[in-house]
Write a structure and sequence with these properties.
With 150 residues, this protein is α/β, with parallel strands linked by helices. The chain is built from four helices and four strands; from the N terminus they run E-H-E-H-E-H-E-H.
């Protein structure tokens, strides 16, 4: 059985209803759970470095960490390059074999919330896929260069 935990600061009705909750207060408890996969809202996080440092200190070798690289509450579609930068930033803290990407939250999870059009949602998902692929290519180049130097 696969168990995962999806942690968001709230994304319904186009608001972050729990945005004032400090991630560092809840992450230690979350990482004590017997869960293998963590999906964490991070794209809209004000201080990603601080949160990523905490994740690095708390995660275990059997954990998979999926970081949010897309903010569904903003209508601006992220570019693949922006997504790539977020992945590369996270790769400094999370081992590549444990790192994955996700969206900060779902797109219009409630029937009465039609603020994000279907087209914008698909464009954002496409940017996540392309940006993650771009990060993978960049990291593979870095890894190859490192092997050549050694």
């Amino acid at each position: 059985m696969i168990i995962f935990l999806f942690v968001i600061l709230g994304g319904d009705k186009d608001c972050y209803h729990s945005y004032e909750v400090d991630y560092l207060l809840v992450l230690p408890t979350i990482f004590e759970l017997h869960v293998g996969n963590f999906f964490l809202q991070l794209s809209s996080e004000f201080d990603r470095h601080r949160v990523l440092s905490c994740i690095r200190d708390l995660m275990q070798p059997w954990h998979r960490i999926f970081i949010g690289v897309i903010d569904p509450l903003k209508l601006k579609v992220e570019t693949p390059e922006e997504v790539c930068e977020r992945v590369l930033e996270a790769a400094k803290y999370i081992p590549l074999e444990q790192l994955g990407t996700t969206d900060d939250c779902g797109f219009s999870p409630f029937d009465d919330d039609q603020s994000t059009s279907r087209q914008i949602a698909f464009d954002k998902i496409r940017a996540r896929i392309q940006g993650t692929k771009l990060a993978e290519e960049t990291l593979n180049i870095i890894r190859r260069k490192s092997k050549e130097e050694n």
